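pasting for the record
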Amino acid sequence: MAVARVTKITAASSKGFKEAVDEGVNRAAKTLRGITGFEVLSLKGKVEKGKIVEYRVTMEVTFILD
């Protein structure tokens, strides 16, 4: 039987929400072993001078404990 842990992270990208999710999962994978999934909790953006300059996601990443 496995035991999992969930951690909340926020990531950003200047390209889009998908890229922000990819960035968050890729970065989490550098320090967390056994990632099994994620859930996006919120999507936000930053606007400057009427243009979108940053896409932000807050997500929960699930991983199995050793």
